[in-house]
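FAQ

Q: What does a record look like?
A: Structure on top, sequence underneath. For example:
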């Protein structure tokens, strides 16, 4: 090696390839820096020992070709000891003394081979993917023709001949509307890509296809757009499923919307998520007022909401997360009472966590009112049966008392003839006769209660009937501080009626007026002609009638008098029956705490 120039050897250390020189007995005469890093400093040792640790020459060594034939050889060599592949150049070198050496250059190509392998694999994968991927893949020109497509796209659009497909005009033959193609290219030119662009294409058989396009532009070496490439996803099945889901969703919405019961859904904080039309009608809140804006605690109280949730979580009310039935009464904002039945359940996720709650409220107000009326009717029927029995007994008693009563009256009348009018005893006889007469009248009323009035109807003057009753009630009105104002039409036309029944109607009205004006007041009685009817108005300034009692005022056995001795609720009912039986009508108007007015209309004779 003395013949080798030291400067040349130093220069070889800067090479990134491994370089070493051996003589004709395989002894390493020189190793550059890179070679030493890879295999260690093997100068003076046998080359095959240094490279592979073997006592025999390497399999790839071209010793004869280089030393004997003076040839240069190139090959790829894998050395296991360093796990690398090299491009090996073996070059003959003739020294100054005429001896020969071999210059070996090891260029590490491991990384390059790995990249080539990856690239080859990527190309193979791409080709395989292009061919077998389930969605359509295309490359198209800017002018509007496919340059290449995969089999999946042919199948999606119903083509078998690729050449036929590549000859299609995209705007006319593929896009359902040429304008869609124009919009697509405008977006591509402007943004360089489209993602999930929904459009309608036409299949070979003419059927419409819903597709999603995701693509980007292709450029030439000068940066000019030459076309587009991308993928096509057939959305027809998804669209069909979406439409089916939408139909099912719409159908469910209609069921919820048209349900006669209120249907509500809330999250676990009580925020309302669903509020159907019946809920609007029953509770008085519109959907846009409550959904995501109100909690169920604002509809019915926090106390009720808490109780309902506790009952849903308690299995004894219908099972876990269920409440089969809960009677719920509450007042709306306008104080209208809402009565009904609530059933509810909790919605759980797949892990059993509470997600939301759903409730159905059935409005039972009409049903409950009907039941109450039926119960009231049963009570009235029972009372009627009792009164009927009492009426029968009363009739027997009245008949039994009538004979001795008239005997007493006749006896007293005979005694009057024997006593002078100036005698004090005569006054006692008159008082006794008056009381006996009153007792006879009471018996007559008892008989009329148990037996319908059979009085004949005649033409009567209502003003005269009222005037007669005023004479009877004048003292009582005065004692009760009641001022009476009469406003009677002059010479009213006659009406065809039972005088006794009409008197009973007015007596009942006057008695009720006095009861309503315990501390005194004003009673106005007026008559007038309205069309072909005589209208009689009786108005007092008493305590009035509560609004909820107005509709019941003419019901049998309905009374607002707290003491049973004051009435059993038959007076106005009997009056109503008398007036209706005469072809007339009776209505009541009142303002609680201020006044009450009864208006009676009866047809005029002739």
């Amino acid at each position: 090696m003395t013949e080798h120039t030291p400067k040349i050897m130093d220069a070889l250390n800067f090479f990134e390839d491994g370089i070493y020189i051996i003589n004709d007995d395989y002894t390493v005469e020189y190793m550059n820096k890179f070679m030493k890093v890879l295999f260690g400093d093997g100068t003076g040792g046998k080359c095959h020992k240094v490279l592979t640790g073997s006592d025999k020459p390497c399999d790839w060594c071209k010793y004869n070709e280089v030393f004997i034939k003076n040839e240069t050889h190139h090959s790829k060599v894998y050395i296991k000891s360093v796990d690398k592949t090299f491009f090996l150049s073996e070059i003959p070198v003739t020294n100054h003394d005429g001896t020969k050496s071999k210059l070996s250059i090891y260029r590490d190509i491991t990384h390059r081979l790995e990249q080539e392998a990856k690239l080859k694999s990527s190309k193979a994968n791409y080709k395989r993917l292009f061919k077998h991927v389930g969605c359509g893949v295309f490359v198209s020109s800017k002018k509007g023709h496919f340059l290449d497509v995969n089999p999946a796209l042919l199948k999606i659009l119903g083509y078998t001949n690729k050449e036929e497909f590549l000859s299609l005009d995209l705007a006319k033959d593929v896009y359902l509307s040429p304008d869609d193609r124009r919009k697509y290219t405008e977006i591509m030119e402007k943004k360089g890509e489209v993602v999930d662009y929904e459009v309608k294409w036409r299949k070979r058989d003419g059927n419409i296809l819903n597709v999603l396009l995701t693509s980007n532009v292709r450029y030439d070496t000068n940066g000019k757009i030459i076309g587009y490439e991308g993928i096509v996803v057939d959305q027809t099945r998804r669209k069909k499923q979406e439409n089916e889901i939408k139909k099912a969703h719409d159908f469910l919405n209609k069921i919820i919307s048209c349900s006669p019961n209120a249907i509500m859904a809330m999250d676990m904080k009580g925020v309302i998520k669903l509020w159907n039309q019946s809920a609007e009608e029953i509770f008085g809140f519109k959907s846009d007022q409550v959904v995501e804006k109100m909690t169920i605690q604002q509809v019915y109280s926090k106390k009720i909401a808490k109780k309902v949730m506790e009952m849903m979580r308690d299995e004894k009310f219908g099972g876990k997360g269920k409440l089969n039935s809960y009677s719920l009464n509450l007042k709306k904002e306008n104080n209208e009472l809402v009565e009904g039945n609530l059933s509810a359940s909790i919605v759980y996720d797949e892990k059993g966590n509470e997600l939301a709650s759903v409730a159905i409220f059935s409005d039972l107000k009409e049903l409950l009112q009907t039941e109450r009326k039926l119960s009231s009717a049963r009570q009235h029927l029972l009372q009627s049966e009792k009164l009927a029995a009492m009426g029968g007994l009363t009739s027997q008693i009245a008949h039994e008392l009538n004979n001795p009563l008239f005997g007493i009256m006749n006896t007293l009348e005979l005694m009057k003839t024997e006593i002078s009018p100036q005698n004090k005893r005569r006054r006692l006889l008159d008082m006794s006769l008056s009381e006996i007469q009153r007792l006879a009248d009471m018996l007559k009323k008892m008989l009329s209660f148990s037996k319908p009035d059979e009085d004949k109807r005649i033409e009567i003057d209502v003003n005269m009937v009222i005037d007669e009753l005023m004479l009877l009630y004048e003292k009582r009105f005065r004692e009760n501080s009641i001022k009476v104002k009469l406003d009677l039409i002059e010479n009213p036309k006659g009406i065809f009626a039972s005088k006794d029944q009409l008197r009973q109607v007015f007596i009942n009205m006057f008695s009720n007026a006095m009861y309503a004006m315990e501390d005194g007041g004003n009673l106005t009685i007026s008559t007038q002609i309205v069309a072909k009817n005589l209208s009689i108005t009786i108005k007092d300034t008493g305590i009035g009638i509560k609004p909820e009692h107005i509709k019941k005022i003419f019901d049998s056995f309905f009374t607002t008098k707290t003491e049973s001795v004051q009435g059993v609720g038959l007076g106005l009912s009997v009056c109503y029956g008398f007036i209706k039986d005469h072809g007339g009508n009776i209505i009541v108007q009142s303002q609680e705490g201020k006044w009450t007015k009864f208006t009676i209309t009866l047809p005029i004779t002739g």
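Q: Is there anything notable about this one?
A: The longest strand covers residues 208-219.
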